[in-house]
Design a protein that fits this description.
The complex is a heterodimer of chains A (475) and B (1143).
Chain A (H helix, E strand, L loop, with lengths): L2 H7 L21 H13 L4 H14 L1 H12 L14 H12 L1 H12 L9 H21 L27 H34 L3 H10 L7 H34 L11 H27 L8 H31 L3 H12 L3 H13 L7 H5 L1 H28 L14 H24 L5 H6 L19
Helix pairs in contact in A: 3-17, 4-17, 5-7, 5-11, 5-16, 6-7, 6-10, 6-11, 7-8, 7-11, 7-17, 8-9, 8-10, 10-11, 11-12, 11-16, 12-13, 13-14, 14-16
Chain B lengths: L19 H5 L2 H8 L15 H18 L26 E9 L2 E10 L2 E7 L12 H10 L9 E2 L2 E2 L2 H17 L5 E5 L5 H13 L4 E4 L7 H10 L3 E5 L6 E5 L10 H12 L2 E2 L5 E2 L2 E6 L4 H5 L2 E4 L5 H16 L10 H12 L12 H14 L4 E5 L5 H13 L7 E5 L8 H9 L5 E5 L3 H4 L6 H6 L3 E6 L11 E4 L8 E4 L5 E4 L12 H8 L7 H13 L4 H11 L9 E2 L8 H15 L10 E6 L13 H5 L7 E2 L4 E3 L1 H6 L7 E7 L2 E9 L7 E5 L9 H4 L20 E13 L3 E2 L14 E3 H6 L31 H4 L10 E6 L8 H9 L7 H5 L8 E7 L27 E7 L8 H5 L5 E3 L5 E3 L9 H5 L6 E2 L16 H7 L7 H9 L13 E2 L5 H15 L15 H5 L5 E5 L6 H6 L4 E2 L11 E4 L1 E3 L13 H10 L6 H7 L5 H15 L3
Parallel strand pairs in B: 6-7, 6-16, 9-12, 9-14, 12-13, 16-17, 17-18, 22-27, 24-26, 30-41, 31-40
Antiparallel strand pairs in B: 1-2, 2-3, 4-5, 4-18, 8-15, 10-11, 15-21, 19-20, 22-28, 23-29, 24-27, 25-26, 25-28, 31-38, 32-33, 34-35, 36-37, 39-40
Classes of the chains: A mainly alpha (475), B alpha/beta (1143).
Amino acid sequence: MDSNSVSSSVKIAAPPKELEREPLVLNNRPPSWITNQVVGIIEGNTPRWWWVTFIFSALVTLLVPIYVGYLISTGVGVWGLNSPIAWGWAIVNFVFWIGIGHAGTLISAVLFLLRQKWRTSINRAAEAMTIFAVMCAGIFPGIHVGRIWYAWWLFPLPNSNGPIWPQFRSPLLWDVFAVSTYFTVSFLFWYMGLIPDLATIRDRCKSFFSKFFYGLFSLGWTGSNRHWRNYEKAYLLLAGLSTPLVLSVHSIVSFDFAVSQVPGWHTTIFPPYFVAGAIFSGFGMVLTLMIPLRSIFNLHDLLTKRHIDLMCKVVLATGTIVGYAYGMEFFIAWYGGNPYEAYCFQNRAFGPYWWAYWIMISCNVITPQFFWVKKFRNNVILVWILSIFVNIGMWFERFVIVVSSLHRDYIPANWSYYSPTKVDVLTFVGTFGLFMVLFLLFIRFLPLIAISEVKGVTNYADPHHPQGGAKGGHH
Amino acid sequence: MKNDATSPKELRGPDYWRSLDHLTASPKFQQWAEREFPETVLGAPDGKSRRDFMKIMGASFLLGGMGLTGCRRPEEALVPFSKMPHHYTHGVAQYFATSMPVRNSAIPLLVKSSDGRPTKVEGNPDVGECGGGTDSFAQASLLNLYDPDRSRYFLKSGKKSNLGDAEKNLAEISNKHKSDSGRGLHFLVQSTSSPSRIRLEKLIKKSMPEAKWCVYDPIDFEGASRGYSEVFGRSIRPIYHFDKAKVIFSLDCDFLGTEQDSSAHIYGYTKGRKVTDGDDGLATTNRLYSVESMMSLTGSNADHRFRVTSNQVFGVAAAMMDKCFEALGSSDEDAGSPIPALRTSLRDKSKEIPEHRSKTGWSAKWIEESVQDLIAHKGNCLIVAGQRQPDAVHQLVAAMNTLLGNVDKTISFIDREQHDAITIEELKLACDAEEVETLVILDGNPVYDAPADLDWKTAQRKAKHVIRLGYYEDETSQDVDWHLPMTHYLESWGDNRSSKGFWLPVQPLIAPLFKGFSEIELLSRLAGQTDTKGYEIARSTLRAIIGDSDFEAQWKQCLHDGHHESLKTQIVSLNVQAFDWSKLTLQIGEAITEEAQFTQASKDVLEVVFHRDASMDDGRFHNNGWMQECPDPITKITWDNAILMSRRTAVELGDLKNEELIEVNLEGRKLTGPVWIQPGYADFSLGMALGYGRPSPGRVGSLGDRSVGYNAYSLRGTTSKNFTVGGTVKRLNKTFPLACTQDHWSMEGRAIVREANLENYETKRDFAQNMDLEAHSAHIPHDADGQPKQIYKHPYTASPETKSEIHQWGMAIDLNTCVGCTACVVACQSENNIPIVGKDEVANSREMHWVRIDRYYSGEPAKRSQSDNLVHDDQQAYEEWIDDVQVVHMPMSCQHCESAPCESVCPVNATVHDHEGLNVMAYNRCVGTRYCSNNCAYKVRRFNYFDYNKRPLDKLDRGPWKTFVTEGFADRPQDEVNLVEMAKNPDVTVRMRGVMEKCTYCTQKIEAAKIAQKIKARDSGDIEVPDGTIKAACQEACPADSVSFGNLLDPNSKVSIAKRSPRNYSVLGFLDTKPRTTYLAKLRNPNEKMPDYFKMPLSTLEYKREMGSPFESHEHHTHEDSHGDHGHNETHASEDSGKGGQH
């Protein structure tokens, strides 16, 4: 059906062209088109590129069990750690992945509460990314301890040793709670959002197994009014519940550093700065993932340049906050008059790890500045390249914080240098494989755009819009 | 007692009953009691009869039995002593007095025996030599006892033989040479102090007069004795009284480090170094001048240091002698006196001293002023010359000490056993001439350490019959007729004399682990004696000295005390007039002609100095993991020796880099080793430590497939035993990694080690507190008691019930007396079962030492730019300030902070505080997050990155593929484990991988003392451990007595007194961690007339550049100091209020 002819026939309520917002779904695509387009990805044949990337990623993932097995059987010494640098890549990677995992819940919860309708096109994939990133992150704190078989002592489980409880003053314990809560809530939120879409797939698919599994996971969704009412209430509740978590999880991760007394770690600016950095890196990763998917699956009408433009603006804002934090750290180091603190920051910029610092600054502070210019924001390829720089920069930010602070602290006799080993590097590479495997499975089996929600922001869902309400009858 | 079996009732004790029903034997009770499970209310469950129960249980047992046949209790045979040894309680350690022989001296020891095996070596405080301290060698000698590579078998031409055949062979030799009066019998021995060995040597000489004795020590410590003997015309050995000397002058003499008896010297030196108030109320201490080529421990502790190449030391001594004559010797210059001639030659010699490379060039003034200082302290100064210096220098030193009136004051003498021994060169000639019928080599390792040009390996084989007594089957044992295993001193009887003349017993703590002889047991067999047991030999020797009367009692007393007061050799009273000036003149004249060939070192002809290593000695500790891993006190390099040189040498040789391999050529011999640029080194001098790079090393000394270090002996010839000029260097464009435990050299102006000159100290005794960060912070609010206000309450204030009111432990370390000798490092390793981790792990900063000694260099701040402190550690070796440096040493271990940052971050409560102020580690609870280490400001926590105790050092990182599939289990060989386990302290756990560990203040010793005190106290309730009972291992080993440990609640304890010193300060105290270990600031005593005098120690000048002067008093500060921060004043105000109550 030609939808343009419908819109041209009713012109009374339409606002003047120059005031009209760019629509969130281009070409006035009807709901059926959206369903076909998104579910079509799952229903179609598995493309060859998918198999190639999947097998490659799966092979890369094998690095994780291999090197984690080596680590557990032999000792943490297989990493490059030493005294004074007792935390290295494992913690850097942990914070990096947790940071990546920030965007999803922010997009789905905070933007939902703030009525940012553009979130609908990206929230599903971003939430999936969040869950997979948190899974990758979760590997590291588990394996970085010296005696992995006793890592469960970090949980407050009843035991016969006294009983001895964990130490509630330790930020590492807070991490355990913060990350596990974050993961649980994010997962529930994601899954709940999926239910109407799973039901849509169930209704369309033909094979018995698909029907069975999609039917199982759609939990008997019929799309009745009552279902939708409950669903939307629950969604709002979970959004409300997730919002503080978005702020808390990275604040608490930052406490691992801020609560300690190591110069370069012990700063009150860390919680907001870490949250901003996490959003920054999360949006960077969303851009990195969504831009190729948009082309591959021909989703230009759903994931429009406006979406990319808006994400670039978030990247610009958070990147600038991060840049301000870098500057403020230096200012306080000087203004605070503590020579140890002052040395730490001088050493960051000009000491043996100067290269890491300047990679961080160029990627995190300079890169987002391109996004002041609309032309650059609209150049999808440029945005994609810059988003990768954001990811690199944010990994280096964690490296700079963890390693350059530890390597030269209070007593010069302890000073040393840290280099990762093959095991450090390949375990990290392996987690990228894991992330990709999970993400590829996601795009193959689950709708990567929230169908029902996108429909809700089209004109067709707007009862006041000429196309809206029951009049169109396109369902 | 008669036991009447018919009336058992009468033997019953008092009756007890469970209830009144029981007493009355009511039927209800009977029924209840007879049920099998009287406690259960229910009977058997419905439908399950007793029979069913038995069936099910039977089946369960069967299943359990089939499935778990491997699970049973280990069989343990409990074999009781059939006769209980005297004074022995299982698990309670015993201590035995003994002594460790070291060439011509010995170290008095008390050795701990845990259930019949020696586990820890401690000094014997009753022998007033080193106040109970030891050196690191004595500490580590324990591990040699349990060395799995030690010699275990009697070998005849390399094949296993037995004790009987060996004894038969020895008897044959003895008989043969008795008949030909010893013709062709040659002994190659190392020097000894053992009276028994000397007695046996005399016996052999008597019965075999033509037997020849060759004494060869690869490192010769007899120079000083020869020098003094020569000029006094009597065979004497000097004893230095460093404690009585106000001014000490060292000529290339590392008496605090690598010279013999260093622990005794440190004891004396630090006694004189302690700051005391003089008669005028001003603080006094001794003053140390050092002239040397290497940066030695002595040089690092010196108040003034002048670096010259070792061959220029003669020139310095000559110049000093000349100055002494100028001031003191004029009366001797009458007609016919040899002195004018002597002075002429001295002046010629002294012209060779190079100018110091500073702008002004102050060498002459430096010598002039230092000699003036010596003269001003006539009679209580002391000049010592180093072991490497030629006899002529020792003679000059003898002359100067005589002129300065030091004889019998700061230096005295004992008689020295005259040896008419031949040299190894002469022995080699005899071998070449095939005059040697039988060659007996006692200990030593001449194939490895004899001068390279002798080609000793070939020479030795020319002897017809070679018998070798050796502790290892080493290079020398390769091609001999008989190799006999030697016993360790901890498993043999014997005797020694210390360098001060004390008779010391050698008493075994364990039967020989493997069969073998001690030196005296072998000699007694060769002498044809009937008493071939070491016990009898030692007793006979003592009996000959003290006589038969009351011998047994005295013998027992000697063994108990570890010495015998009446057996102290008499001090020789010398007639100073006997000084033979004409002999001196003659000798010096000769020496100068000989020395004339010694050219000035330059980049084309470098000086090569061979020195004793602080870890290997002459190579005898090559297979000792503790010593291999003990960082060199100066370079901090482990597991290797390096070719040490100054920055300028490296630059002029073409910008040599650290760890670059170079080839050194000397007299046609070549050697390859890695470069290490050492601050404070003399230019154009290369330092090479002996004792590394053994051609056929043991398991530890090989670290996989190669020997540790390079073999400096391969470069050393007969004419270059100590040092020589003429080395050339070739670059190889290869590198060789070195494992150094301290990468960064400078303290960067931080107030970590705090030091002042004596005169600064006079102006402000509490300068150390004035260097706290708070002293420079503005607007710190203070409490009423003058303490800075804190946000958080002190944990003991917050919960006082967690604090013990009886004991609160603390430690104070006096940096003024700590010389940095590392004895504490090895002692701690021994006491606390600290593993060695190997070179690769040390190279990656993973060493496990619970106490480490930080060593910092400070240079003139003017020579440093602000950005110097940001460079990569590889670049610091090329900075100019390192040429002339001051050095500080600081022992650093867990500070036991009261508000410990490690504790609050541990997620599993593995590190917690106890009620007596210890920060304790619960190893079993530790999961190894390493967060505590990150949060420790002192970085004293050590993490077990691998299973260091179980795995071989070269296979620590072997993965499961290799471990389980291709190469089998990576565990250490069983013989190694069995032996090394015996060295472990049974009172301390051995930690597995993944666990954090650190200093515990030797909590096992604290607990033992508390238990002992509780037993002693019984009902009196006096359970407070008296001060001095507990000595931490580091404190026990410290020859400088720098460490005090004890109860802080006792105001009279040593540690409380130390902490009341105005010099007391906490490192990083501003963090408010409230460390229980505090430090007493270091003081320097420079002479302001000297050209290298600085108003403040260089590190304090660096500090001043950053933070302002710590010596300015309150008023002074407000008026003049442009630094002008008011917080400074506030801090002072509060301090003053504490004292005078003014504010």
